[in-house]
Amino acid sequence: MPSATASSSAEPKQVSASTSYLRRDHCRPPPLSFCSQINANIRANRTLDSPYFDLAGHIGNRAYCLHNVAYAGGSDETAALLDVGVKDLLPDLIPAPPVPPPKGLTFVVREGEGKHGLGMFAARNIPVGGLIAVERPILVAPYMIALQTHPESDFYTALLHRLSAETVERFMELANCKPASECDIVEGIIRTNAIAITLNVPSSPHPELPTHRGIFPNISRCNHSCGPNAKWQWDPVSFSLSLVALRPIEAGREVTVAYISPTCSRAERRSQLKEMYNFSCRCEICARPAAVTYNSDAARSELNTVWTSLLSFEDWCLDPTMDDYALIDVHLRAVSLIESEGLEMLDYGKHLDAIAMGYGALRDVEQFREWTWKAREFRPTDHRASRVLESWILDPETFPVWGWRISENVFRKD
Q1: How far apart are CA 312 and CA 50, in angstroms?
Q2: Which helix (H) or strand (E) holds 78?
Q3: Whose CB among 80, 229, 251, 413 lies 3.0–4.6 Å from 140's, allowing a Cys bridge?
Q4: Domain coordinates of the chain in residue numbers?
Q5: Region entry Disordered: which residue ranges (predicted)?
Q6: In this structure, what DSSP letter does residue 47 have?
Q7: Cβ neighbours of 9 (radius 10 Å)
Q8: CB neighbours of residue 323 within 10 Å
Q9: What kind and span of H or E run contains 212?
């Protein structure tokens, strides 16, 4: 994920073996025109979710440290550049991931046929919801480094110096899509392979942006598709990233994720990927004929707005003038579009849940059981949710909103 770097003088002051605090000299804020441009970009970025961001205030309130994250057990190592307030919110010892890495070989890293560069490929059949990998980051850095005079690459190099030679070697083996005229190799590797992760930030004026960059030894190699078969799941408590299958993945098939919002048109997606990662997307979705692409773009645009004008479940239950299947039909339409476009990453589970709820509110036992089972199959590794869903399938009348639509309409008519 590319970032903007406002410049500050920073000299490391060694405090302990794991943390070095950076001295920040007072300096003039950046020019107003530069601030306005960065403010507009960050406020408009949905991922960052910072509609009131102010660059001048952000720079004036930052104090950073270089920190080695400490883990309970294992040999993982992470070097992080963090706002001091963010670092203070981390526990002294990060616990193990709640879900351990899968047993046995689930993926291999190799070059795909007709492709340049490495990717992740399934080493065995992986079911929907199957865990492909769990990893800790090698490096972590803010989305925006608000220190002046030192180039961004200096901070990344300082982080590498805090890691073992073996880990640095794994980092240097990652791809670099950036030309030498734009940045050096280390910064190029960061910009090519960084995955957005979210950290807890202090509640204060001009807080640090929660979104940070994480570099992972294997998961960062996962290539892009506009119809991805896997997704990332970040757990800030265990400081770990999971790679989970969205659809069944056959052995030998490439594991893919979406680098950008997949609801844009093909032309927009290709333009963004070219600008950010210097490649023209040729995934199965983008390789479709022009006529199919036109319909695909329309479907993705519809999915992008499906939740904005959707009537709430409660309002549907209380409005006897609406068709009994009005709400269900909207979600059925979304499920159909998602499946045709390979976009299970777009709230697919929520749509399945909504359909099951709708049929439950209508006391339709057969359809309720069918869609509740589909919702359960989409999250097989969530054992707690699976047990609850299975209990409702066995006895639908225990479902909390069973018969609401019918009961409320009868009540209103009386």
Answers
A1: 26
A2: strand 78-83
A3: 80
A4: 6-257, 313-413
A5: 1-24
A6: T
A7: 14
A8: 10
A9: strand 211-215
CA distance 362 to 405: 6
Amino acid at 70: A
The helix/strand/coil state of 33 is helix
CB 184 within 8 A of CB 192: no
Cβ contacts of 308 within 8 Å, gap of 6 or more: none
Pairing of strands 78-83, 64-69: antiparallel
3-state helix, strand, coil in the chain (%, to 5): 35, 20, 45
Instruction: Mention the CATH class of domain 6-257.
Output: mainly beta
Map 134-183 to HEC letters.
EECCCEEEECCCEECCCCHHHHHHHHHCCCCHHHHHHHHCCCCCCCCCCC
- Evaluate whether 141 touches 148 at the Cβ level (below 8 Å): no
Reported as a single tens digit per residue, the pLDDT across 186-221 is 999 999 999 999 999 999 888 999 999 999 999 999
CA angle in degrees (0–180, nearest 5) for 188-194-197: 155
State both tokens at 381.
């590794």
**Strands 211-215 and 195-198, bridge-based pairing:** antiparallel
Angle at 104 between CA 98 and CA 108, to 5 degrees: 105
CA-CA-CA-CA torsion sign (338, 116, 47, 232): positive
Q: Are 322 and 411 in contact (CB under 8 A)?
A: no
Query: Which two three-digit tokens encode residue 85?
Result: 């307030």
Residues 63 and 53 sit within 8 Å (Cβ to Cβ):
no
Q: Take residue 243 and report the two structure tokens written for it.
A: 């790679």
Report the sign of the C-alpha dihedral through residues 89, 95, 100, 106, in that order.
positive
**CA pair distance 387, 393, nearest whole angstrom:** 10
